[in-house]
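Structure, all three chains, one model.
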Amino acid sequence: MLIELVEVSFTYMAHTPLAQTALRGVNLTIKEGEFVGVIGPTGSGKSTLIQHFNGLLFPNEGNIYVEGVRLEKKTNLKSIRQKIGVVFQFPENQLFGETVYEDVAFGPRNLGLSEEEVERCVKESLTLVGLDFDTFKHRSPFLLSGGEMRRVAIAGVLAMKPKAIVLDEPTSGLDAKGKQGILSYLDDLHKKENLTVILVSHDMDEIAHFVERLVVLDKGEIVFDDSPKKIFLQADKLTEMGLGIPKICELMVILKKRGMEVPLDVFEVEEAKQAILKAIGDRR
Amino acid sequence: MKFFTTPIGQYFPAESFVHRLDPRVKIVLTMFLMGATFAIKNYSGFVFLSLFLFFVILLSKLPFLWVLRTLRPLRYILLITFLIHLFLTPGLVLFKISFLKITEEGLKNGFFFCVRLIFLVAGTSLLTFTTTPVELTDGIEYLLSPFKWFKVSAHELAMMMTIALRFIPTLLVEAEKVLKAQLARGADFESRNILKRAKNLIPFIIPLFVSAFRRADELAMAMESRCYRGGEGRTRLRVLEMRAKDWLTLLFSPIVFIAIVCAGRIGF
Amino acid sequence: MIELINLSFTYNLKREDEIIALKNINLRINEGEFIVVLGANGSGKSTLAHHLNGFLLPTSGDMIVEGMNTKEPDNFWKIKEKVGMVFQNPDNQIVATVVEEDVAFGLENLGFPREEIRRRVDEALEIMQMSVYARYEPHLLSGGQKQKVAIAGILAMRPKYMVLDEPTSQLDPISRRSILEVLHQLNKDYGITVIHITHFVEEALSASRVLVMKEGEIFLDGSPFQVFKDLRVLNSSGVSSPIIATLAHELVKSGLSLSLPIFSVERIADALC
């Protein structure tokens, strides 16, 4: 069990009149090698949740374990933060290094690695996000394109060789190509390096394709925790939460209502095509 | 991260006579109060002034203890001020502990200085507790506007203050985000070694600067696209208006101050 | 009418790092249009937007707004009154510390009398359905709400044209949808010409006209119907196709007879049964 949350509740400004509960009795386990999507409307507690994974926030109630170690303020948080890398929204806003190299090296250096090891980490992580080490190492991170800056920032977390990487809206603000780039590199990382990936997003269409498991948060509680296919069967509930469902699911629901024999747990173009062709074929 | 949850400005929302006063009146009266604290030279004067201040706090519906709390950070300064005056003022010696002499004048001076400091802080706190930063900015802009002729543009000053007020919360949120992002990369902001700690601040400060400059750039563009070209020919949606109670307060409060100062002079 | 005549623009002109951002663009924007501009990053969308109200001046060619050339310094402010601009980051375009005062900002700059400012501010907030938040501090609003405040601030100035430079790119899907709805309402009910720049291809489906930019040139220009007809051409500009359009395309390839293009869920459902 890589990450385990047991009955976790969290309240901002607890014990004050401004108290705001962000998480309520959350139970969640994430195994090594999973690719999990966390989805929920704005204010559902997604960001609060991921800050619990690496000890940036501690629950008011309940417990969190990372590889069996319970997180509390006196835990060795550095080693936890090395294991669970967290990339926040718009991570390019955290860049500070004079060169891409310096920036990506920040994490490994904080871990006290030797300069040789640091260089190896930087090189590997830049390669992992699709940036050529020799081309980029001496460039200023501030003069890169938006997509490249974001990759450098992600590399900065990957360079710590985490067991899991948690990303909050990693594609927000990027164009279609930039989005696809980031997502496919994450997919590769997961498949080739067996990295655990936790992807937080509010865009169903985007995340459905990649993840094996989807955790749906609403008002601080986990509402669904299942495969995307099963979750998209609950179209009504998702729409009610303001999440919406992938366009193709939407179509399948309409077709089914009109009497066409199509499955509802379909959200990819290829699957949808086969399903529609089959349904029309059967009808004839 | 207590630092980031401290509210900006000290405004304490309440519905009171003092809250509703025109900010210009409040600023002018605060000045008067400052003047009065320095003009008073006797114990009785301070007693009257304390009573007056107490009355204003009651009138403004602020919790009394809450106002007192603002004096807390002052405690060491007060202590040091008091001790310096106590030991270093020449005059009639009351006690003598080896080379340290406590004089009657020292006791009195120390006491007066501490009380003045307390009044200064309490008075300005009262102003900021009962006036929103926006009102303050407006009041200052208005009061400074006669100084246009001395090449001090009150409008620009006020615009700068407004923008600062507008962006402080935004930048604080940003600061927290950067801090957390760097913590997630194993940054150490709590090292015992001061030099190391200062060095560790770089990854925190640089992103903040970069973002502040970017914001400034974009804001300038947005302002220009809404035809902002300085204070010339500009009108305002919100204008300050003096009502009867503002005029009356402005008229009567100075009389009270003068009375207190005079009472202090003739008294003991 | 806005006219771009042989307009080119180069950043860092005649320097080593010069970048040609716009190449010889000819374009006419008519009143009442709802134009969505698509294109990959670096295709020149934003540079184009920054020409429309005279932030950037063409290195060659002309940009003419209602007969006024942006090159003429006298026209600088007049053009900004006609062409309002909303930017990407909702945080960095709100000036005042109270919502209604921010909406008033443009009118204050133009020196309108107080009563008129009041009227227009209330009206603009009403249209944007933000009246409840009139006395709020902007930092307490969500991204979508901030963006609505920004739009209200432009709306209050009653411009003929509204240029929006990726206003939805940092918002969640719900806010995105509601901003798009509001823009259509402004276009339909108040006759404001909207030029909406975005990288969400789905937002182009309801436009009256779609421009696709590629490498500083206008690559496609037409109704959504025309632009989404040939997906291969569209994709070659780096713009992905709407997912339903792709599905319809695939179905046709597999032998179904549908009349392309189809890009909305309703239309494809109707076509299928």
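The mean pLDDT of chain C is 93.
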